[in-house]
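input
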Amino acid sequence: MKKLKHQFLAFVIIFLFSISWGTVPAYAAAAGSQSDSPGTKGAKPLSFISYTLEDGSKIDAAEGITLQPRFKFEFDKNVVNMLVWENNSGCFNLSLDNISVPIVVSKIDDTVDTDSKQLIFMHPKNTLLPGKTYCIKISPKLLAKNLSSTLGGTTNGQGITLTFKTKGQAAPENTNTGAAAKNTPASTANNTSNSSSAWKMTLNNWVELVSGIVILCWIITEFLAKRRIKKERNNKPLV
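output
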Protein backbone atom coordinates (compact mmCIF):
# COMPACT_ATOMS: atom_id res chain seq x y z
CA MET A 1 0.00 0.00 0.00
CA LYS A 2 2.79 2.40 0.91
CA LYS A 3 4.61 1.47 -2.31
CA LEU A 4 1.50 2.32 -4.31
CA LYS A 5 1.29 5.73 -2.69
CA HIS A 6 4.93 6.44 -3.50
CA GLN A 7 4.39 5.47 -7.13
CA PHE A 8 1.32 7.74 -7.40
CA LEU A 9 3.24 10.66 -5.81
CA ALA A 10 6.13 10.15 -8.22
CA PHE A 11 3.69 10.15 -11.16
CA VAL A 12 2.14 13.43 -10.02
CA ILE A 13 5.56 15.08 -9.61
CA ILE A 14 6.71 13.94 -13.07
CA PHE A 15 3.42 15.15 -14.61
CA LEU A 16 3.74 18.62 -13.03
CA PHE A 17 7.34 18.96 -14.18
CA SER A 18 6.41 18.00 -17.73
CA ILE A 19 3.70 20.67 -17.81
CA SER A 20 6.00 23.37 -16.42
CA TRP A 21 8.82 22.61 -18.86
CA GLY A 22 6.40 22.59 -21.78
CA THR A 23 4.94 25.95 -20.78
CA VAL A 24 8.26 27.83 -20.43
CA PRO A 25 9.40 27.42 -24.10
CA ALA A 26 5.96 28.42 -25.36
CA TYR A 27 5.99 31.57 -23.23
CA ALA A 28 9.55 32.39 -24.31
CA ALA A 29 8.60 32.01 -27.97
CA ALA A 30 5.59 34.29 -27.54
CA ALA A 31 7.66 36.92 -25.77
CA GLY A 32 10.34 36.75 -28.43
CA SER A 33 7.88 37.43 -31.27
CA GLN A 34 6.77 40.71 -29.62
CA SER A 35 9.97 41.84 -27.99
CA ASP A 36 11.25 43.98 -30.86
CA SER A 37 8.02 45.79 -31.80
CA PRO A 38 4.38 46.20 -30.90
CA GLY A 39 2.05 43.99 -32.92
CA THR A 40 2.93 41.19 -35.27
CA LYS A 41 5.58 41.25 -37.92
CA GLY A 42 4.42 43.06 -41.07
CA ALA A 43 2.03 45.29 -39.17
CA LYS A 44 4.49 47.69 -37.55
CA PRO A 45 3.43 51.37 -37.80
CA LEU A 46 4.63 53.24 -40.89
CA SER A 47 7.19 55.93 -40.01
CA PHE A 48 8.38 59.04 -41.82
CA ILE A 49 12.20 59.26 -41.92
CA SER A 50 13.18 62.41 -43.82
CA TYR A 51 12.68 64.71 -46.78
CA THR A 52 15.41 66.29 -48.88
CA LEU A 53 15.96 67.93 -52.23
CA GLU A 54 17.04 65.65 -55.05
CA ASP A 55 19.92 67.96 -55.99
CA GLY A 56 21.33 67.83 -52.46
CA SER A 57 20.50 71.44 -51.56
CA LYS A 58 19.51 72.22 -48.00
CA ILE A 59 15.81 72.70 -47.46
CA ASP A 60 16.33 74.88 -44.41
CA ALA A 61 18.86 77.20 -46.07
CA ALA A 62 18.53 80.76 -44.78
CA GLU A 63 18.29 82.18 -48.29
CA GLY A 64 15.55 79.72 -49.23
CA ILE A 65 15.40 77.01 -51.88
CA THR A 66 15.10 76.98 -55.65
CA LEU A 67 11.84 78.02 -57.29
CA GLN A 68 11.73 74.64 -59.09
CA PRO A 69 12.37 72.17 -56.27
CA ARG A 70 12.20 68.38 -56.53
CA PHE A 71 11.57 66.75 -53.16
CA LYS A 72 12.46 63.24 -51.99
CA PHE A 73 10.52 61.73 -49.07
CA GLU A 74 11.78 58.63 -47.27
CA PHE A 75 9.76 56.20 -45.14
CA ASP A 76 10.66 52.99 -43.34
CA LYS A 77 8.49 50.68 -45.47
CA ASN A 78 7.54 49.98 -49.06
CA VAL A 79 5.12 52.76 -50.05
CA VAL A 80 5.32 52.49 -53.84
CA ASN A 81 3.98 49.00 -54.51
CA MET A 82 1.15 48.78 -57.02
CA LEU A 83 -1.20 47.68 -54.23
CA VAL A 84 -0.91 51.04 -52.46
CA TRP A 85 0.35 53.53 -55.04
CA GLU A 86 -3.06 54.79 -56.16
CA ASN A 87 -3.79 55.73 -52.55
CA ASN A 88 -0.33 57.05 -51.71
CA SER A 89 0.07 59.22 -54.80
CA GLY A 90 -2.88 61.29 -53.58
CA CYS A 91 -1.58 61.73 -50.04
CA PHE A 92 0.64 64.74 -50.78
CA ASN A 93 -0.42 68.40 -50.87
CA LEU A 94 1.51 71.61 -51.52
CA SER A 95 -0.07 74.95 -50.63
CA LEU A 96 0.60 78.67 -50.32
CA ASP A 97 -1.59 80.65 -47.91
CA ASN A 98 -3.97 77.66 -47.74
CA ILE A 99 -4.35 77.62 -51.53
CA SER A 100 -3.34 74.33 -53.18
CA VAL A 101 -0.48 74.38 -55.68
CA PRO A 102 -0.51 71.80 -58.55
CA ILE A 103 2.11 69.08 -58.03
CA VAL A 104 3.43 65.88 -59.60
CA VAL A 105 3.96 62.86 -57.34
CA SER A 106 6.18 60.06 -58.68
CA LYS A 107 8.08 56.90 -57.71
CA ILE A 108 10.55 54.32 -58.92
CA ASP A 109 8.73 51.01 -59.29
CA ASP A 110 9.76 48.47 -56.65
CA THR A 111 10.04 45.80 -59.34
CA VAL A 112 12.71 47.91 -61.05
CA ASP A 113 14.71 49.14 -58.06
CA THR A 114 14.00 47.59 -54.66
CA ASP A 115 16.32 50.13 -52.98
CA SER A 116 13.86 52.91 -53.85
CA LYS A 117 10.72 51.23 -52.57
CA GLN A 118 10.67 53.52 -49.52
CA LEU A 119 11.05 56.74 -51.53
CA ILE A 120 8.39 59.06 -52.98
CA PHE A 121 9.22 62.08 -55.14
CA MET A 122 7.25 65.29 -55.58
CA HIS A 123 7.69 68.55 -57.48
CA PRO A 124 5.43 71.53 -58.34
CA LYS A 125 4.06 71.67 -61.88
CA ASN A 126 4.92 75.36 -62.20
CA THR A 127 7.69 77.63 -60.96
CA LEU A 128 7.06 78.79 -57.40
CA LEU A 129 6.90 82.42 -56.29
CA PRO A 130 10.05 83.97 -54.78
CA GLY A 131 10.33 84.84 -51.11
CA LYS A 132 7.26 82.82 -50.10
CA THR A 133 6.72 80.20 -47.37
CA TYR A 134 5.05 77.05 -48.71
CA CYS A 135 3.51 74.15 -46.80
CA ILE A 136 3.70 70.42 -47.58
CA LYS A 137 1.23 68.04 -45.98
CA ILE A 138 1.44 64.24 -46.06
CA SER A 139 -1.85 62.53 -45.22
CA PRO A 140 -2.05 60.11 -42.27
CA LYS A 141 -3.71 57.71 -44.75
CA LEU A 142 -0.36 56.99 -46.45
CA LEU A 143 -0.27 53.20 -46.54
CA ALA A 144 2.50 50.58 -46.45
CA LYS A 145 2.59 47.58 -48.78
CA ASN A 146 1.36 45.32 -45.96
CA LEU A 147 -2.01 47.16 -46.26
CA SER A 148 -2.29 47.52 -42.49
CA SER A 149 0.31 50.16 -41.52
CA THR A 150 -0.49 53.84 -42.04
CA LEU A 151 1.42 57.03 -41.35
CA GLY A 152 -1.28 58.01 -38.88
CA GLY A 153 -0.10 55.21 -36.61
CA THR A 154 3.11 57.11 -35.80
CA THR A 155 1.78 60.68 -36.03
CA ASN A 156 -1.16 60.44 -33.66
CA GLY A 157 -3.44 60.44 -36.68
CA GLN A 158 -2.19 63.85 -37.83
CA GLY A 159 0.13 63.03 -40.74
CA ILE A 160 3.19 65.17 -41.50
CA THR A 161 3.33 68.95 -42.03
CA LEU A 162 6.49 70.56 -43.47
CA THR A 163 7.32 74.12 -44.50
CA PHE A 164 9.99 75.71 -46.67
CA LYS A 165 10.86 79.14 -48.03
CA THR A 166 11.75 79.98 -51.63
CA LYS A 167 14.68 82.11 -52.71
CA GLY A 168 14.37 85.74 -53.76
CA GLN A 169 12.39 88.78 -52.72
CA ALA A 170 8.63 88.58 -52.55
CA ALA A 171 6.81 91.06 -54.78
CA PRO A 172 5.26 93.90 -52.75
CA GLU A 173 1.54 93.54 -52.29
CA ASN A 174 -0.78 96.36 -53.41
CA THR A 175 -2.18 98.34 -50.49
CA ASN A 176 -5.45 100.28 -50.44
CA THR A 177 -3.50 103.55 -50.49
CA GLY A 178 -1.50 102.44 -53.47
CA ALA A 179 -4.59 101.29 -55.27
CA ALA A 180 -6.30 104.60 -54.54
CA ALA A 181 -3.30 106.52 -55.79
CA LYS A 182 -3.12 104.33 -58.85
CA ASN A 183 -6.78 104.89 -59.63
CA THR A 184 -6.73 108.66 -58.96
CA PRO A 185 -5.55 109.76 -62.47
CA ALA A 186 -8.14 107.56 -64.12
CA SER A 187 -10.84 108.87 -61.82
CA THR A 188 -9.78 112.46 -62.53
CA ALA A 189 -9.80 111.80 -66.25
CA ASN A 190 -13.23 110.25 -66.01
CA ASN A 191 -14.53 113.22 -64.02
CA THR A 192 -13.03 115.65 -66.54
CA SER A 193 -14.56 113.72 -69.40
CA ASN A 194 -17.95 113.67 -67.70
CA SER A 195 -17.77 117.42 -67.00
CA SER A 196 -16.82 118.12 -70.61
CA SER A 197 -19.72 116.01 -71.87
CA ALA A 198 -22.15 117.75 -69.54
CA TRP A 199 -20.89 121.18 -70.69
CA LYS A 200 -21.24 120.20 -74.35
CA MET A 201 -24.75 118.93 -73.69
CA THR A 202 -25.69 122.19 -71.96
CA LEU A 203 -24.26 124.26 -74.81
CA ASN A 204 -26.18 122.23 -77.37
CA ASN A 205 -29.37 122.72 -75.40
CA TRP A 206 -28.83 126.49 -75.31
CA VAL A 207 -28.09 126.56 -79.03
CA GLU A 208 -31.26 124.64 -79.76
CA LEU A 209 -33.24 126.92 -77.45
CA VAL A 210 -31.92 130.12 -79.04
CA SER A 211 -32.47 128.69 -82.54
CA GLY A 212 -36.02 127.83 -81.61
CA ILE A 213 -36.64 131.36 -80.29
CA VAL A 214 -35.18 132.93 -83.43
CA ILE A 215 -37.32 130.77 -85.70
CA LEU A 216 -40.40 131.51 -83.62
CA CYS A 217 -39.73 135.25 -83.77
CA TRP A 218 -39.24 135.08 -87.53
CA ILE A 219 -42.55 133.22 -87.96
CA ILE A 220 -44.35 135.79 -85.78
CA THR A 221 -42.73 138.66 -87.68
CA GLU A 222 -43.73 137.18 -91.03
CA PHE A 223 -47.26 136.62 -89.77
CA LEU A 224 -47.58 140.21 -88.52
CA ALA A 225 -46.10 141.61 -91.72
CA LYS A 226 -48.56 139.71 -93.90
CA ARG A 227 -51.41 140.77 -91.67
CA ARG A 228 -50.40 144.43 -91.91
CA ILE A 229 -50.12 144.25 -95.68
CA LYS A 230 -53.54 142.66 -95.90
CA LYS A 231 -55.02 145.32 -93.64
CA GLU A 232 -53.48 148.09 -95.69
CA ARG A 233 -55.02 146.60 -98.85
CA ASN A 234 -58.42 146.46 -97.27
CA ASN A 235 -58.22 150.07 -96.12
CA LYS A 236 -57.04 151.42 -99.49
CA PRO A 237 -59.75 153.64 -101.08
CA LEU A 238 -61.20 152.51 -104.36
CA VAL A 239 -60.53 154.83 -107.35
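quick obs: The first helix runs from residue 2 to 34.
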